[in-house]
Fold this sequence. Notes:
alpha+beta, 5 strands, single chain, five-stranded antiparallel sheet
Amino acid sequence: MLDVAVAYSRYQFLGEEFLTWLWFVIEKNQNFIKSFDPDFVALEVGNRVVLENRKKDAAERITIKGDGASLEEGILALKKGSLITELNIVYKSAELRWQFTLKGESLNISTLSIPSTGSAESEEDIEGVVLEKIFLYDKALQLIEKLYAHFTKLRVSDTWHSSESPLIRKWIQSS
């Protein structure tokens, strides 16, 4: 049986490849996301991207943050072999908007901001407000779970090497 720490470090590349693939999907192919959420409007790179290049003797870390920050430095880092370790995502569905950061090494979600809900005007309304908040949290989590499940199936298929990986490389080189 694998030690948890060994397994964690051995497979963290999957989460980082997932985030890199997700950025590619955000830039080039958002239409297929509608199959996971019929009300899907958009998925955008938010206000923070962290990339890391571990191919040299020392790890190089690049952080791009701020509203309206240019992502060209991130593309340049991808060209040099970096992988995304954190990605802030803006998810829009119907008239609703979520924003959160996804960490590659563990796929932890942090700073999840959900759409605002109605306030409870009486004690009877509290249960409805709580259930609405649970639904809104779950909707963002379900999207990430479905995207990751799709990614893992794609990653172990022949399509990854024959089609998807070359498309990602082409996107990185042409940006």
